[in-house]
């Protein structure tokens, strides 16, 4: 069952049933309620974040297919997917697996998520009593060793191979390109030379706004790829952490709701304050609910969600280097005639 505990009857004290989804009502008013709720919300935020970023990689895959950019697809996109799967998707698998296992039936305690991931990287997949997750510890160790190997190898592959392949392609096509430019300049004059140069540069351009035509510079391309690799590796970690703002928003909303209810309604209903005091308390509760929880809180959630879509999600596939938008105009069409 996804995170739940047995429900205990207030009269008999016996466990009656299990809740197989959401929060079990027995957590309400417990001292561990906030700690348990925060843990679940943080993990849900990570699941949402990794899912959306993975979908962004899928959209980037479609970009490479449409553009016919097989070099970037093979030597950049596939290592990016391997890096994402080897660490972050495995982290999501651990979260879901821990939710679906009854640990009371196991001979070992549930391991900490952070401890498992840290030991996997630093210990190269080693499993001990504190990090055993599956019944077969040898299988877990082999799996984590392969995942760690793939994660570590994907970084230099992203960095090295694409610039080298683009350099080889440029060296192979450069003589033909220079010959075409030279003959074009002799036959067509200055205007033809300019046109031919632009055609060669466009034909040899490979990447998103980074041409590799006659002015191809290997050091410049390598530096660009280095920046892109560092940005992806560090950005994947920071972007995943950025999705924890979903947990923070939920926590703030829950705490504000509880404070408004306790201070404006519950205390007035318990104490004998009279109908006037209760009317004032209900009015203040309605005003706080509408003004803070509905208006201000919803606007805050909208802005944070917009930020997550624009930064964490779209940086996986959106390059902003396409054709500039030109609105349709009848006057411009007439001028072209």
Give a structural overview.
- There is one protein chain.
- By secondary structure, this protein is mostly helical.
- Helix content is 72%, strand content 1%.
- The chain has eight helices and two strands, in the order ββαααααααα.
- Helix 1 packs antiparallel against helix 5 and helix 2 packs antiparallel against helix 4.
- It starts with 6 loop residues before the first strand and ends with a helix.
- 14% of the residues are buried.
Structural class: mainly alpha
The spatial strand order of the largest sheet comes to 1-2
Low-confidence stretches: 1-15, 177-207, 209-213
In percent, how much strand structure appears in the residues? under 5%
Q: Order of helices and strands, N to C?
A: EEHHHHHHHH
Shape: flat
Radius of gyration: 29 Å
* Helix percent band: over 70%
What's the main sheet like? 2 strands, antiparallel
Distance between the termini: 69 Å
**Count of β-strands:** 2
Q: In DSSP terms, counting alpha (H) and pi (I) runs of 4 or more, how many helices?
A: 8
Q: Overall mean pLDDT score?
A: 79
List the helices and strands and how they pair.
Elements: E1 7-8, E2 15-17, H1 33-67, H2 70-99, H3 113-122, H4 137-204, H5 218-242, H6 245-270, H7 274-313, H8 330-336
Antiparallel strand pairs: 1-2
Helix pairs in contact: 1-2, 1-5, 1-6, 2-4, 4-5, 6-7
């Amino acid at each position: 069952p996804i995170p739940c505990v047995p429900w205990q009857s207030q009269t008999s004290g016996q466990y009656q049933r299990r809740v197989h989804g959401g929060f079990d009502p027995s957590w309400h008013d417990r001292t561990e309620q906030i700690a348990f709720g925060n843990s679940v919300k943080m993990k849900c935020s990570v699941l949402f974040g990794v899912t959306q970023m993975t979908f962004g990689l899928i959209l980037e895959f479609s970009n490479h297919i449409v553009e016919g950019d097989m070099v970037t697809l093979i030597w950049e996109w596939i290592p990016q997917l391997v890096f994402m799967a080897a660490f972050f998707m495995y982290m999501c698998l651990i979260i879901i697996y821990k939710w679906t296992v009854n640990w009371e039936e196991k001979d070992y305690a549930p391991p900490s998520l952070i401890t498992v991931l840290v030991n996997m990287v630093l210990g190269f997949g080693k499993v001990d009593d504190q990090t055993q997750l599956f019944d077969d510890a040898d299988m877990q160790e082999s799996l984590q060793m392969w995942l760690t190997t793939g994660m570590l190898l994907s970084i230099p592959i992203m960095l090295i191979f694409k610039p080298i392949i683009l350099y080889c392609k440029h060296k192979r096509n450069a003589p033909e390109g220079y010959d075409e430019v030279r003959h074009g300049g002799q036959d067509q004059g200055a205007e033809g030379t300019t046109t031919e140069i632009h055609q060669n540069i466009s034909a040899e351009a490979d990447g998103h706004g980074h041409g590799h035509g006659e002015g191809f510079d290997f050091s410049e391309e390598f530096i660009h790829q280095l920046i892109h690799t560092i940005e992806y590796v560090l950005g994947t970690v920071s972007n995943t952490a950025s999705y924890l703002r979903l947990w923070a928003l939920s926590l703030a909303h829950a705490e504000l709701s509880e404070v408004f209810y306790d201070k404006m309604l519950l205390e007035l209903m318990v104490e004998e304050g009279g109908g006037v005091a209760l009317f004032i308390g209900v009015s203040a509760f309605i005003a706080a609910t509408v003004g803070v929880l509905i208006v201000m809180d919803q606007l805050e959630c909208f802005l944070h969600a917009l930020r997550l879509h624009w930064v964490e999600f779209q940086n996986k596939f959106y390059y902003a280097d396409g054709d500039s938008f030109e609105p349709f105009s009848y006057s411009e069409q007439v001028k072209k005639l």
